[in-house]
Each structure stands twice: as C-alpha cells, then as structure tokens.
C-alpha cells in the first residue's frame, strides 16, 4: 500500500515537471520603460531593478528553483499579477493622470513596507530595503509624480 502511494506521488511529481508556464523574458528596456524614460540616479535605478523589476517589468531574473514545479507556477502567477497592477516596462504608455496615480501608489507601498512582498524578500535578500532605501525610493516616486498633472 505505502509503496504504491509513494510510487504514485513520485510519478505525479515527475509528471508536473513537464507542465511549464511561459517565462517573462521580454526584450531589453525600451523608451517606455520607467528607468529609461526618467533616468534616475544609479542608486534609485539599482533599487528599482533589484526590488521591483522582477515582478513589475517584462524581464524577470529567475532563480534556479523556478524550474521546479509547482514553484515555477507560483512565480509565474506572482509576476502576472504584479504586471497587471503595474508594468514598469510600459510605464511611459500610461496617461499622465494614470502615471501620477501609479507613482503615488508606488511611493505609499514602498514607504509603508508593503512592497516588495514578504515572499519575494525571503528569497531575494538584496530586495530587503532599509528604511533609508525606502525613503529614497518613496521620495523619488513622489518627485516623479510631481512632474505630472494633479490627479
């Protein structure tokens, strides 16, 4: 009985490895990309890339364990959801009003510690922002927001 259950579980685990989600590996940043269009200072750019861009752009840096299912499915779901909320690769295509609103949300999420999400920080230590880094990003988002008409 136990041997059959273990064999069944093993077959299931091997079988699900064949079911893959498409990867978020878009082309390099174009003119609509937030970093390209705003040219932030190097530290802000680095923070955006390490703490935000994996889930909120068209290019994700995948860790080795993304190849193991169902972890790969979970990562694909997180990236899809993140891009639905905000895609920095296409930020320049937003209307000015929408862009201002998204920048306000970014400032709030980062300053309050809601972003990056806890599960991402757990596996990406470089995305664990210090209070000073949160303030820097929050201020930068606020400064960029001020370049757009009021909501």
Overall mean confidence score, pLDDT: 91
Distance between the termini: 65 Å
pLDDT < 50 stretches: none
Q: In percent, how helical is the residue content?
A: 40-55%
Strand % is under 5%
Q: Biggest sheet, open or closed, and with what strands and sense?
A: none
> Pairing-aware structural class of the strands and helices?
mainly alpha
Order of helices and strands: HHHHHHH
Q: Which overall shape is indicated by the principal axes computed on the Cα atoms?
A: elongated
Give a verbal description of the structure.
By secondary structure, this protein is mainly α. The protein has one domain (2-145). 55% of the residues lie in helices and 0% in strands. The chain is built from seven helices and no strands. The chain has helices at residues 2-16, 34-38, 42-51, 71-85, 96-112, 118-123, 131-145. Helix 5 packs antiparallel against helix 7. It is elongated, with a radius of gyration of 19 Å. It starts with a helix and ends in a 6-residue tail after the last helix. The model has no long low-confidence stretch (mean pLDDT 91).
Can I get a quick summary?
The protein is mostly helical and 151 residues long.
Task: Give the key terms.
mainly alpha; 151 residues; elongated; 7 helices
Topology:
Layout: H1 2-16, H2 34-38, H3 42-51, H4 71-85, H5 96-112, H6 118-123, H7 131-145
Helix pairs in contact: 5-7
């Amino acid at each position: 009985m136990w041997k059959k259950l273990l064999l069944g579980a093993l077959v299931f685990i091997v079988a699900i490895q064949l079911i893959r989600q498409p990867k978020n590996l878009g082309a390099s940043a174009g003119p609509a990309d937030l970093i390209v269009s705003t040219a932030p200072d190097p530290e802000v750019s680095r923070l955006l890339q390490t703490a935000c861009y994996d889930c909120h752009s068209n290019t994700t840096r995948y860790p080795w364990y993304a190849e193991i299912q169902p972890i790969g499915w979970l990562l694909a779901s997180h990236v899809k959801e993140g891009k639905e909320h905000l895609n920095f690769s296409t930020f320049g295509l937003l209307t000015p009003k929408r862009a201002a609103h998204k920048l306000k949300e970014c400032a709030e999420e980062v300053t309050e510690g809601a972003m990056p999400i806890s599960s991402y920080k757990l596996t990406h230590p470089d995305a664990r922002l210090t209070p000073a880094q949160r303030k820097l990003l929050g201020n930068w988002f606020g400064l960029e927001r001020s370049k757009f008409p009021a909501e």
